[in-house]
Design brief:
By secondary structure, the chain is of the alpha/beta class. It has two domains: 202 residues, Spore Coat Polysaccharide Biosynthesis Protein SpsA, Chain A, CATH 3.90.550.10; 103 residues. 47% of the residues lie in helices and 14% in strands. The chain is built from eleven helices and nine strands. Strands 1, 2, 3, 4, 5, 6, 7, 8 and 9 form a nine-stranded mixed beta sheet that branches. Helix 2 links the parallel strand 2 and strand 3. Helix 5 runs parallel beside helix 9.
Length: 334
């Protein structure tokens, strides 16, 4: 096995805080924590935020904490959701930079070492360092936001994961202050919680840098919406749509909601909301028709597809699909 050289900073202060919200990811947690504790750059702390799951994940986390003193565990009083769990982790973070890692994902063992080199060699104090996530890459060089607006940053990174980035402690503290002083209480969210926290963090950014290396590895959890069975998927879409509606209502209540880049952000969110409502209605109707012996869910899905793309060409296409399905007694779908 290759011998890895461990790195530390000269003053041995905590440079990176890795925040890991934890909720029912027992099968993947060891891989996640191994990637954190085995970083070649050692001046880190790992903050696990226990969000009151019921699959025994916390027991694994506690075993790791006994073996590595850099691991700290925070226990939420009750299930708060990912957004609020990350906020709790931010309050405890002592590192000069903060990273967010989902407990079913993992990072390269070189992540903190590479980020540290970026920090040391940057001509400016960096507010955010963006690195690549497997399946998603950035192609922009250093962007000086003294010459470009925050809108450029928000347009580029809106909707992207809050992970695969390192945020300076200054940005973290400004965000926490804004949340406590200027933002109304934030509802519990499951859908789009990354978008909300991402926006607030980016609001304060002046300098950021992008590194080409793929350092974050996203794991497509089998329990996700796209892999759920129809009945469960229907419930998830309903919940997600309700979350976006709550989030959009929340944004409208903010005093900064008229700012240009905020307006752009809300427009993007509104587009997402419209699409999610369409998806929810699709699965709602499909769920309803699937219960009835008189209707086929395939026919229902074709009709719904036409409803959201009402063109003459699509109408003809839909009628052909349904005709072929009926003429073959449901044996052929195109």
């Amino acid at each position: 096995m290759e011998t890895r050289i461990k790195e530390t900073s000269q003053d041995s202060k905590t440079i990176f805080s890795i925040i890991i919200p934890l909720y029912n990811t027992r099968p993947y947690l060891a891989r996640c924590l191994d990637s954190a504790i085995n970083q070649t750059f050692e001046d880190i702390e790992i903050i696990i935020v226990d969000d009151c799951g019921n699959d025994g994940s916390i027991g694994i986390a506690q075993d790791y904490a006994k073996r590595d003193k850099r691991i700290k565990i925070i226990h939420n009083p009750h299930n708060l959701g990912t957004f609020h769990s990350r906020i709790e982790g931010m309050k405890m973070a002592q590192g000069s930079y903060v990273l967010f890692l989902d407990s079913d994902d993992y990072i390269s063992l070189e992540t903190c070492s590479i980020l540290h080199q970026n920090i040391l060699h940057s001509p400016h104090p960096l507010d955010v360092i963006v690195f690549n996530m497997e399946g998603c890459s950035w192609d922009q060089p250093l962007l000086d936001l003294d010459h470009q607006s925050n809108q450029a940053l928000i347009e580029k990174f809106y909707g992207a994961s809050i992970c695969a980035r390192a945020y300076s402690q200054s940005i973290i503290q400004q965000t926490l202050l804004a949340l406590s002083s200027h933002f109304p209480p934030i509802p519990r969210l499951v859908m789009h919680e990354d978008a909300l926290l991402c926006f607030i963090l980016l609001f304060f950014v002046q300098y950021f840098e992008i590194t080409e290396e793929i350092l974050y590895f996203y794991f497509p959890n089998p329990q996700s919406t796209t892999r759920a069975k129809d009945k469960k998927r229907f419930r998830i879409y309903k919940r997600n749509t309700q979350d976006i509606v709550r989030l959009f209502t929340y944004f409208d209540s903010l005093p900064i909601s008229k700012a240009p880049h905020f307006t752009h952000f809300k427009n993007r969110l509104h587009t997402d909301l419209s699409n999610k409502v369409k998806e929810y209605k699709y699965h709602q109707t499909k769920h309803y028709f699937s219960k009835s012996p008189k209707f086929s869910s395939y026919i229902a899905s074709q009709i719904l597809e036409f409803r959201y793309n009402k063109t003459h060409k699509n109408f003809i296409k839909t009628m052909i699909k349904i005709s072929i399905y009926l003429s073959t007694l449901g044996k052929k779908k195109i």
